[in-house]
Specification:
The chain is mainly α. The chain is built from two helices and two strands. It has one domain. It is 50% helix and 10% strand. The radius of gyration is 19 Å and the shape is elongated.
């Protein structure tokens, strides 16, 4: 049984771990490095972690754009 690192909680349809291993019967995913037993995950830990952080940056940026959009909509509404 190998535990791969996977930072997201939405892991139901995941077929491939971030380390590149295909997930089979004997594989599981964990969001905690302390539970990871896959060597490939440890090897690519830096890459996986920075990818997860880039994802977060993207989400934060997207949320900022969404907030801008909403406030733009609201100011449009108040001027009507
Ligand atoms: Zn792995």
């Amino acid at each position: 049984m190998k535990a791969h690192y996977y930072p997201s909680t939405d892991s139901e349809d995941v077929e491939q771990a971030p380390c590149g291993s295909w997930l089979g019967e004997g594989s599981s995913l964990t969001g905690f490095w302390g539970n990871v037993t896959c060597r490939r995950c440890f090897k690519s830990k830096g890459k996986i972690t920075s990818a997860a952080e880039a994802d977060e940056d993207f989400i934060v940026k997207q949320m900022g754009e969404m907030a801008d959009f909403i406030s733009a909509q609201e100011s449009k509404r108040t001027t009507l």
